[in-house]
Amino acid sequence: MVETIFDLPVEKQIFYAVLGFSWTVYLWEAYLSYRQRRIYRSTTHVPQELGKIMDSETFEKSRLYQLDKSNFSFWSGLYSETEGTLILLLGGIPFLWGVAGSVTTRLGFSPEYEITQSLVFLTLATLFSALTGLPWSLYNTFVIEEKHGFNQQTLGFFLKDAVKKFVVTQCILLPVTSLLLYIIKIGGDYFFIYAWLFTLAVSLVLVTIYADYIAPLFDKFTPLPEGELKTDIEAMAKSISFPLTKVYVVEGSKRSSHSNAYFYGFFKNKRIVLFDTLLEDYSPLNKSGEPQPEPPESDDTSSEAKAKPKNKKQGCNNPEILAVLGHELGHWKLGHTVKNIVISQMNSFLCFSLFAALIGRKELFVAFGFDDSQPTLIGLMIIFQFIFSPYNELLSFCLTVLSRRFEFQADAFARGMGKASELYSALIKLNKDNLGFPVADWLFSMWHYSHPPLLERLRALGNVKQD
User: Fold this and answer.
1) Does residue 81 have a known ligand-binding role?
2) Which of 29, 251, 411, 456 is catalytic?
């Protein structure tokens, strides 16, 4: 008689269901990536509708760049899925928990100090993840990004940065985790409400302090110099009642030639951050016949940035930068930021509520090798990472669809400010600078793209003629 999964003990059913779903998601993602790689391989000439906005040289560069990234993603994804499967099959989680217990015992703590053991476990787990991910990160930075002209880092800078990120992460993660575990332990029947309120407070604090106290540990921020651009930005912000207090330029060029812009802050204290690579007249990556403003001097890190000749003209002119910021400010004016926070916190409350209902189920712990104990941190990992995985996938897809809708709305807001033509040309320039490939498989883009494909955004902006 053939035994099916339904004939197995419930803890085995849980284990194999989690493993099966994980591989199902991986195979689905691999199939989508295969469809997109077919597009990269077969679309070797600029489609007719793109002829006026993209030259054949840039098209070929972006095709090869995205093909390399896709191939890398396939192998790194396969490794990650295989590693995760082996960890589960070989009992890696209970083994590491046991190692953490041995360490805490040697430090003089008894087994009753579960939170201390949890912090040691978390440190070991994040260290293992950092070390196993390091070769992939090195290859991505110094082979793929280097090959296609984006990497600006030296090996020494990269490794120093990686260590700094790990240390800063631990300084935030360990205290927050210990407090969360303590709240769950002493919170009684309504601990999930207190835990949710605590994580809400932590997220708001981190969003508030990140750009002022955390980001400057890694990148140099300087105020945008007085001039036409700053005056125009302040005037645009004032015209829509955006409470702008400061405008910064971040020295992103010491890492990569990719560009970006964002705003942050709560209530009446908003700041705008522009990457130096976004500014045509400010980027140190540009080299032209006309004198360019000197890039901001970086103290101890500037000497570690790669010194190599640059002949790449990139970035946007001032009207285009204003159009890009018009799009970003549209997200604020239309309430997208608040809506995303509300959705995130509703999801967080729901997850903590379900966690409260499931944490007492011993079979969940037995399924992953914890026969004699039910550590709270392990319960958080099992329920949030494994049991909620189908829900997380569905939520992620819905948020991707919502994000695309928000992007169209923000584009329309910039168009309403009279900046359609400038945003049109800025999107083309940014796509070129970042080697975005403008042709996408419909299923791949539907599942993955948080921003609409370039052509869809240009069409939505209307019949804007480019010079």
Assistant:
1) no
2) 411
Task: Indicate the pTM of the whole model.
Answer: 0.85
DSSP annotation string for 212-271: IIIGGGTS-EEEPPSSHHHHHHHHHHHHTT--EEEEEEE-GGGTBS---EEEE-STT-EE
What are the angstrom distances between the C-alpha of 248 and each of 216, 271, 336?
11, 8, 22
Strand 244-250, strand 270-275: pairing: parallel
Instruction: Record the tokens describing residue 377, joined without a space.
Output: 């941190």
pLDDT mean values, one per 10 residues, the chain (467 residues): 70 94 96 96 88 88 96 96 97 96 91 92 97 96 94 93 95 96 94 96 88 86 91 93 90 84 80 88 53 43 45 77 94 93 95 95 94 94 95 96 96 94 92 90 94 90 56
Is there a binding annotation on residue 407? yes
Q: Do the annotations mark residue 45 as ligand-binding?
A: no
Query: At a CB cut-off of 8 Å and minimum separation 6, what does 449 contact?
Result: 400, 404, 440
Q: Is 55 a catalytic residue?
A: no
User: Collapsing DSSP states into helix, strand and coil, what is residue 274?
Assistant: strand
What type of residue sits at position 387?
Answer: I
Q: In residues, how long is the chain?
A: 467
328 has catalytic annotation: yes
Q: Catalytic residue, from 81, 146, 328, 393: name it.
A: 328
Q: What is the pLDDT of residue 303?
A: 44
